[in-house]
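dumping this here before i forget
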Amino acid sequence: MEDYIKLCKTSELKNKFGKKFTLEDGNEIAVFKVGVSFHAFSNTCPHNHTPSMSEGIIENGTYVICPIHCYKFNIETGKTPPEQKDMSGRLEIFRTMVIDDELWVEKKKKNLFKWL
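structure:
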């Protein structure tokens, strides 16, 4: 449990609507409930670095669409779909777990250099 942070009650999240959270390290994440699953990822779009992914739209339960330029990212892998050839950035994914009615998200270890 020390590698996770408690975010909220799962009952506070609406299906396919995002909610933004700011973690203790200052990172903003977007959290979506999709059916019975919970997905957390960076709130910042890797395309234009705008913190708006929590306002995105869930498509087919598989992709979140950035509300700014409509780029799609897989909610489990962070990758763009194959047909989206002009954008190869990846959305940072955070693992989640549910204990009772509480949603927990993993803590990320910060690297000084992104390539590490």
